[in-house]
Design a protein that fits this description.
The complex is a heterodimer of chains A (about 300) and B (about 325).
Chain A: H1 2-12, H2 15-50, H3 52-55, H4 87-123, H5 125-140, H6 143-154, H7 158-168, H8 171-184, H9 188-195, H10 200-237, H11 248-255, H12 264-291
Chain B: H1 2-28, H2 34-38, H3 46-55, H4 62-75, H5 87-122, H6 127-141, H7 144-158, H8 177-211, H9 214-221, H10 226-263, H11 269-278, H12 282-310
Classes of the chains: A mainly alpha (about 300), B mainly alpha (about 325).
């Protein structure tokens, strides 16, 4: 009943708008605090893997049968795996490959997405139609199956993974960038630039693109999160990063057999995937809110789709 | 409506051909001889290898091979490279598991995701909203295979209330559908963990949009109960974007079955894709890609039709 009474007051109170604004602002502070926490943690994770050669207590590939499947202890903070390799050292080194693939695939994906989106949005008509059909086709494809096929057929290698993941995950970026170009191409400064004799490539690159940078940065950050998950999934299935290299996904797979006896083999690498992806998502969401406060909390689920 | 459906179905054709062509070209540009993957070539004479290649149709020019494959696909006479079985029989055998997983995950995500999103939107900025939003963020950041192992460890290892993997009790020779139910609980939960957060987030944001409209104020003003306002007036309008999200995520969800069926050792379609890809079983790979594309296109169409049913203002033309 109390809730009911409040709603009734709400209907008549002009203050409703005011509270809504205050709530949004408060929400934004929280969101930013989260984003900042995410950024700090992300920085720490990145530094830890960059400094892996210094920080890792053991050689990540060194196998010692005598020390196989040891529980976490002072000597091995995260225990050892079935080959006696130190899990902590492998987790630190694994971060390098995950972040490398994540960032480079994102670069491929965002470059492709921006190109397609810019051309479609700027030229419109036939170009737009053709490029959007292409985008729809790629979206329709269960890309994960395509990736498994690609990698299985051509053999897994890091450059192959980067290209394959990058070239199957650009549609979302293309759609956002297209929408921006569609609206911006009608703006006065674009007409002015054209009147001054600027050519199409120059208008797109020098006049419109800088205005789209915030959107691209947000898309790129969220894309890294998605791409790291995809790489981990492929590596888990054994069609990702090839074996001698420590990768988080394949480390989780290594521990699958020992799940009930040696949980630490799978737990820690998975935890690091989760933390890394969460922090990229936090930073991406925070950036979106910061660039576009109007949409705070409205748009959602960046990392969940391809 | 009928014309619309026909036109949409016609539009499927180029997309399907494109997908078939891409898969075909990928598979064909692969290094290595598929014959070498199937048999030990060192045991065969040159003529035998040539005859084998001929039997598999590998000597024909590429366009001919492609058309032959399409024909076989259309008539259902396509056979697996590895086992020689008709691919369609293989699919029929594996489809039910994947269908149950997908159906269960979509149902679970909608049943939980929509109410949670509504709850979140009714008190934006409250502690409940903050926790739900944070939970959704965690949800989209979870690697499915790791989450699966965590749940398996907890429910099968520690609590011992659910089986770890497989599709039925290994101790019995024959078992009924009821015996299989516990085996599907964890896989469905894991699959849903990828779909539920986006559904929740979209429900929340589109509810926030809907609740800000004038017709909500009107509904409140004429004294309707809050439940009626939220569920009958706001939610009905807010559901449209949610339907779209489900449609958009179906390809992702189908892809996720590859990982989840592998973790839980379930012989479904997702795992078949991985097996076929590793074994370079071209006909199976192509059929599977085709089939999933058809499912995705059909579900997109279903989404558009649902849209028109939910919102009478939308005219399908």
């Amino acid at each position: 009943m109390a809730g009911r009474a409040l709603e009734v007051i709400d209907v008549f109170a002009p203050a409703r708008g005011a509270t809504a604004v205050r709530r949004t602002e408060w929400h934004r502070v929280v969101a930013n605090r989260r984003a900042i926490a995410g950024a700090v943690l992300l920085l720490a994770l990145t530094l830890a893997s960059l400094l892996a050669p210094v920080l890792a207590p053991y050689d990540p590939a060194e196998q010692r049968a005598a020390a196989a499947v040891r529980a976490p202890s002072a000597r091995h903070l995260m225990g050892t795996d079935n080959f006696g390799r130190d899990v902590l050292s492998r987790v630190l080194w694994g971060g390098r490959i995950s972040q490398l693939i994540g960032l480079l695939s994102m670069a491929v994906s965002v470059t492709a997405g921006v190109l397609v989106g810019a051309l479609a949005g700027y030229y419109g008509r036939g170009v737009d139609g053709a490029l959007m059909r292409l985008t729809e086709t790629v979206v329709t494809f269960p890309t994960f199956f395509l990736l498994v096929t690609l990698v299985a057929v051509f053999g897994a290698s890091v450059p192959m993974l980067i290209l394959a993941i990058g070239l199957t995950s650009w549609p979302i970026t293309a759609r956002v960038v297209r929408a921006e170009f569609l609206t911006l191409r009608e703006r006065d400064f674009v007409h002015a630039a054209r009147a001054l004799g600027a050519g199409n490539p120059r208008i797109m690159a020098r006049h419109i693109l800088p205005n789209v940078v915030p959107v691209i940065v947000v898309a790129a950050t969220l894309r890294v999160a998605y791409v790291i998950l995809v790489e981990a999934g492929l590596s888990y299935l054994g069609v990702g990063v090839p074996p001698p290299t420590a990768s988080w996904g394949s480390m989780v797979a290594d521990g699958r057999q020992y799940l009930f006896t040696a949980w630490w083999i799978s737990l820690f690498p998975g935890l690091f995937i989760f933390l890394t992806v969460t922090t990229y998502n936090l930073v991406g969401d925070g950036l979106r809110d910061a660039f576009d406060p109007q949409r705070t909390g409205r748009r959602a689920a960046g990392g969940g789709s391809s | 409506m009928r014309e619309y459906l026909i036109r949409r179905l016609v539009q499927f054709v180029p997309v399907l051909l494109g997908i078939g062509l891409v898969t075909f070209l990928i598979v064909k540009s692969a290094p290595g001889d598929p014959v070498a993957m199937l048999v030990d070539v060192s045991l065969l004479s040159q003529e035998e290898i040539a005859r084998f290649r001929d039997d598999l149709g590998l000597n024909a020019p590429l366009p001919v091979q492609f058309v032959t494959l399409l024909k076989e696909l259309a008539t259902g006479r396509i056979h697996s490279f590895r086992t020689g079985e008709p691919v369609l029989a293989l699919l029929a055998q594996r489809l039910p598991i994947t269908a149950v997983l997908l159906g269960g995950a979509i149902a679970l995500s909608l049943l939980l995701g929509v109410p949670l999103g509504v709850l979140s939107a009714r008190r934006p900025g409250s502690w409940l909203d903050n926790w739900l939003t944070t939970g959704a963020l965690w949800g989209i950041s979870l690697p499915a295979f790791w989450f699966a192992l965590l749940l398996m460890w907890l429910f099968a290892g520690v609590l011992r209330v659910l089986p770890a993997s497989g599709t039925g009790p290994a101790t019995k020779l024959t078992y009924g559908v009821l015996d299989m139910v516990p085996y599907f609980v964890l896989p469905i939960v894991v699959l849903a963990s990828g779909l539920l957060p986006p559904i929740m987030r979209y429900t929340r944001s589109s509810m926030l949009d809907a609740l800000g409209h004038d017709y909500i104020r009107t509904a409140r003003g004429k004294g309707l109960s809050e439940t009626a306002v939220v569920y009958r007036h706001a939610l009905r309008n807010a559901l449209l974007p949610v339907v779209t999200v489900v449609g958009m995520l179906i390809p992702v969800l189908i892809g996720a079955t590859a990982v989840i069926e592998s973790v839980f050792a379930m012989p479904g379609l997702g795992r078949l894709v991985v097996e076929a890809a590793i074994g370079r079983d071209y006909p199976t790979i192509m059929t599977l890609n085709f089939l999933t594309a058809v499912v995705v296109l059909a579900s997109n169409l279903a989404v558009d039709v649902t849209y028109a049913i939910l919102d009478p203002r939308i005219q399908l033309e």
